[in-house]
Amino acid sequence: MSGDTARDFYDHLAGDYHLLYQDWPAAVAGQGRALDRVLRGHLGAGPATVLDAACGIGTQAIGLAACGHAVVGTDLSPVAAARAAEEARTRGLRLPTLAGDMRALPFDGGWADAVVCADNALPHLLTAVEVGTALGEMWRVLRPGGLLVLTTRDYDALRAAKPAGQPPKSVDSAMGRAITFQLWHWDDDGERYDFEMFRLTEGGDGWAVRVGGARYWALTRAQLSEFVAEAGFAEPVWRTPEETGFFQPVLTAHR
Predict the structure, then answer these.
(1) How far is Cα 145 from Cα 96, in angstroms, rounded to an integer?
(2) Range(s) of the domain holding residue 176
(3) What is the pLDDT of residues 82-92, one digit of tens each?
(4) Same domain, 14 and 106
(5) Are residues 161 and 243 in the same domain?
(6) 212 and 223: one domain?
(7) CB neighbours of residue 107 within 10 Å
(8) How confident is the model over 54-71, as pLDDT tens digits?
(9) Same domain, yes or no, for 187 and 210?
């Protein structure tokens, strides 16, 4: 992964990220409840001490904090991490955040009950070494018996279809109006792709057009399960959105 490219992309997206959702507050609440069920199903009634290793503007971290968990967030984008903390504060929630790379987490070992890395963040890492390093860091900060929760796009299906992108999506909400679409450019081997995101956002002077992009490794469930096992985790299991209520496939494994 080019850290500079991904960081710049999310720095510039942070102010508008909520406009990727028709109703971002509802998404925060719903995703938080879904992941809360996953955590409590594996760790007991809780609450748990949770590291969100790719917190973005807080979509999952705020939802988990609202469910009673003690959450700390890190993100490659300092702008996104700062917004997550502020969004939590306005809701009366505590969410300490800092800028940090999941390949070198700035925490002591063994302190977290759970590490969450959701919403297709891990596939920004483009090599086996990078993925293994990040998973090793997540293993390190977990206590023995702690839980890893990863979510990605359904790359088993996407690699078979190799779609050219995502169709336009319009948002007209109390938080703003926007039209967003993506173009995907697949490598010849079908494993990785570059994406371009086009955003039209309404402001005081009319509509503004913004374009940004980055790169993903379309890791299949089998590939990611193997990486998780190689990092030392036990019992990696995938569950579908129908099973969890979360919008992406969810992998869980224990230290």
Answers:
(1) 24
(2) 157-216
(3) 999 999 999 99
(4) yes
(5) no
(6) no
(7) 17
(8) 999 999 999 999 999 999
(9) yes
180: amino acid identity, one letter: T
Which of 50, 107, 52, 99 lies closest to 78 in space, CA to CA? 99
- Has this prediction a pTM greater than 0.85? yes
* Residue 122 and residue 166 in one domain: no
Point out which residues pair with 209 in neighbouring strands: 200
DSSP letters, 193-211, are EEEEEEEEEEETTEEEEEE
Structure token digits, residue 72? 């700390």
Instruction: Quote the CA–CA distance of 13 and 15 in Å, as a whole number.
Output: 6
Q: Other CB atoms closer than 10 Å to residue 237's CB: what's the count?
A: 11
Is 75 in the same domain as 195? no
Residue 245 corresponds to which amino acid?
Answer: G
Distance between CA 174 and CA 179 in Å, rounded? 15
Helices 3-13 and 78-90 meet at what angle, rounded to 10? 40
